[in-house]
Amino acid sequence: MSRSIRLAVIPGDGIGQEVVAQGLKVLGAALPQDVKLETKSYDLGARRWHATGETLTDAELESLKDHDAILLGAIGDPSVPSGVLERGLLLKLRFAFDHYVNLRPSKLFPNTTTPLAGRPDIDFVVVREGTEGPYVGNGGSLRTGTPAEVATEVSLNTAYGVERVVRDAYERANSRPRKKLTLVHKNNVLVHAGHLWKNIFDKVGAEYPDVTTDYLHVDAATIFFVTQPERFDVIVTDNLFGDILTDLAAAVTGGIGLAASGNINPSGAFPSMFEPVHGSAPDIAGTGKADPTATILSVALLLQHLGYADEAARIEAAVAEDLTERDAARTTDEIGDALAARVSG
Ligand SMILES: NC(=O)c1ccc[n+]([C@@H]2O[C@H](COP(=O)([O-])OP(=O)(O)OC[C@H]3O[C@@H](n4cnc5c(N)ncnc54)[C@H](O)[C@@H]3O)[C@@H](O)[C@H]2O)c1
Ligand SMILES: CC(C)[C@H](C(=O)O)[C@@H](O)C(=O)O
Ligand SMILES: [Mg+2]
């Protein structure tokens, strides 16, 4: 039986273009011969906005829906006012396609740089809520631009939204050997949202007697990410805390150039979207210094999601092998070539 993958590709801005090219190279090398890969590239991001004023049209959203998955590079450029592309494109996609599970795994790969003493055995996954919290755009400003300006950015937390992501995190914890789930929030101060999260965490936990649970305030969690990262297995947290914690996780496990993510719609009603955790890195765009590994590992998450577990594992193994021998001076292209060769060889 012939199989096929319909993949939408959004290279985006800055290094997004460079790393996505390498991700596609490795995807092509990893797929079995009988799998037909159909890609459709979308010209979205700063260039398009300057040319047309558009970020993402309804017609494009409809067309993107008609795919098995989306691969995204990065969005954002200094020439565009902050927030226009981030909200009008990236968050619009996450919200429209109900990507409520933002999955961000962290592993300390061999031979990577880490500021951590003793190279602890780090292998955890952050389940970041992806559709609520302070990201919903619930706010505004009064007397804008005056000395009396007041601005609000109200975090939205619904029992429905919290319960579904917490349940997903319990399922993931239950299927991993250590079966441990940590809730990270700030319920000593954010008592309304914090208690909603904690109550639902405890209620759903009663259905998972084999999962050990823990709670940390987000400030304390940042301590343990650095001093005791091996204590974590699965972490569930809100949209903003998850954003911040996963850049920190990347920094202690080999660098932001290795951190992969999946924006998952578990129901399958909409395509899930895979992207590196990092942004468009305007400071290194066009220099060949961008590490494409985060995108390539995001391709592995994409394959895993579509049921190609062996191919995903081959990519992960190729990354681990490559890192043990990697020469720091290698370019974006050279890393992509080396990984594609390992995966197909
Ligand atoms: N998912 C996304 O599309 C996404 C994620 C984060 C930031 N952004 C956007 O990207 C733009 C730049 O944001 P920023 O500078 O805060 O974050 P960034 O992640 O782009 O860069 C932070 C630092 O990490 C480095 N870096 C990032 N990716 C790297 C890679 N693959 N290899 C080597 N070094 C890498 C950069 O050079 C920079 O020094 C902003 O417009 C921001 O909104 C987009
Ligand atoms: C660009 C921005 C909207 C985005 C986020 O905050 O989610 C980014 O930082 C990320 O981590 O994917
Ligand atoms: Mg981020």
UniProtKB/TrEMBL annotation:
GO-annotated cellular components: cytoplasm
Cofactor(s) listed in the protein's UniProt record: Mg(2+); Mn(2+)
EC number: 1.1.1.85
Cellular location(s): Cytoplasm
MF-aspect GO terms: 3-isopropylmalate dehydrogenase activity; magnesium ion binding; NAD binding
Listed GO biological process terms: L-leucine biosynthetic process
Main location: cytoplasm
UniProt-annotated site: Important for catalysis, residues: 135, 186
Top-level division of the source organism's lineage: Bacteria
Record: residues binding NAD(+): 279-291
Keywords, alphabetical: Amino-acid biosynthesis, Branched-chain amino acid biosynthesis, Cytoplasm, Leucine biosynthesis, Magnesium, Manganese, Metal-binding, NAD, Oxidoreductase
SMART domains in the record: Iso_dh
Catalytic activity: (2R,3S)-3-isopropylmalate + NAD(+) = 4-methyl-2-oxopentanoate + CO2 + NADH
Function summary: Catalyzes the oxidation of 3-carboxy-2-hydroxy-4-methylpentanoate (3-isopropylmalate) to 3-carboxy-4-methyl-2-oxopentanoate. The product decarboxylates to 4-methyl-2 oxopentanoate.
Subunit structure: Homodimer.
Record family assignment: Belongs to the isocitrate and isopropylmalate dehydrogenases family. LeuB type 2 subfamily.
NCBIfam families: PRK03437.1
Descriptive protein name: 3-isopropylmalate dehydrogenase
Organism: Streptomyces botrytidirepellens
Lineage of the organism: Bacteria, Bacillati, Actinomycetota, Actinomycetes, Kitasatosporales
